[in-house]
């Protein structure tokens, strides 16, 4: 069972991102402050949930959270500052947009760039340990998926409505065949899908 938050003394926001490993599209991040003793039956790490579960939980989180915010850093900025810094920047933007200022931050992962003077703790696999980080993972994931599904109509051959910009074989093959779109991260390498096969022979 997931705990509500990392600590109880200060008002805490959980933060997580989605889309770090993608070849295309922005990286999204969310920050969520949940009520004390908050309980949501299926709330868990977004990767452990189905698409429909995430959609349902997003509505609940956005309705019942003390405060929540989602922000993004686009592919152009990612190429300029690198994906790690872009992930931190997306979280900073989300925290800044919160209608209630948190006094503490719990961050999914093992690294973070300090935001203002708010103390923080990094928690490896925190989205599977704390509800506020799990909630942030769901918002970041669902908002990003929505964005990728919307732009998929512009560039149907990449099949972003299915792969959401991740480097699947279909996506990589299309990128090599049709070239990169304006949404692609040019600093990310699109390797031929056959390379892995040949390297294993």
TrEMBL record:
Gene Ontology MF annotations: manganese ion binding; RNA binding; RNA-DNA hybrid ribonuclease activity
Superkingdom of source: Bacteria
InterPro entries named in the record: RNase_HII, RNase_HII/HIII, RNase_HII/HIII_dom, RNaseH-like_sf, RNaseH_sf
Keyword Metal-binding tagged: yes
Subcellular location: Cytoplasm
Keywords for the protein's UniProt record, in alphabetical order: Cytoplasm, Endonuclease, Hydrolase, Manganese, Metal-binding, Nuclease
Protein name as catalogued: Ribonuclease HII
Organism the protein comes from: Pedobacter africanus
Name of the coding gene: rnhB
